Amino acid sequence: MDEIQRVYSKLESLFSKFNFPARRIYNVDETEVSTVHTTSRIIASKGTKQVGTIISWERGKNITVCCAVSAAGDYIPPMFIFPRQRMSPQLQCDGPTGALYKCSKNGWMTSELFTVWLEHFAKETSASIDNHFLLIMDIHSNQSHIIVFIFLLERERHPHHFNISYRLQPLDLTFCGPLKSTFNKECETFLKTHAAEKITPYDIAKLFNQAYGRVSSVEKATNGFKRNGIWPLNRNVYSDEDFMAAMNLSPPGEGSVLSLIDDDNQIEGTSQQLV
């Protein structure tokens, strides 16, 4: 809990220094969607021996989608990263308005692509030297992104203020789960209405957009920040018991939650097990 309280103390200092309103506090996170969706639970009569559902027979290909949302409920158009060498306009068909579409060898975020996303974020938010933003992200799984971000800050290209990171991000708490569930339902509907067809990467943007439109509400965004005490700031939102339970559910050897970057853009603190 001492490490947790350090984060809230840092937040208090940043809010006092920069007077961030809710619209300048953002969380960015990456999620994956696939051409082979997860099916919903099937209910059948007791004793039924053959129960099935329709899935795509296309070999699963994971596409990364980078989403960002503010504590006021503003959504940055997402960025799709497809596992291929070249981008095709067909991959963008009926996708979210203003979205970006990029490629990488394995469909994962890279430092170069994160730089592109930062440019996208700056354009959408009008971030500038005099218009600071607090951007929350999972730095433990994106160390290379941090290096890019610090580099950009030093060059004063995008002086949004990057400060804290921990496992229970706002998007993870209230948005990503419902988004994936709704996306899977859209895939099931597609397969039921398109007999003998499979889901391909060219269908992903449209299916994702349908799910994204249903889930991306102001309430889901603001509740994520509220539940972890970022906005409104509430340092008492978690107890020792909350993090003991979280650690018991973590895979063996996996650390916990907290790291932050100080005002001089130096990484401060490391991941620790809060036990």
Automatic annotation (TrEMBL):
Residues 64-187 form the DDE-1 domain. Pfam families: DDE_1 (PF03184). PANTHER family: POGO TRANSPOSABLE ELEMENT WITH KRAB DOMAIN (PTHR19303:SF74), TRANSPOSON (PTHR19303). This is DDE-1 domain-containing protein. It comes from Periplaneta americana.
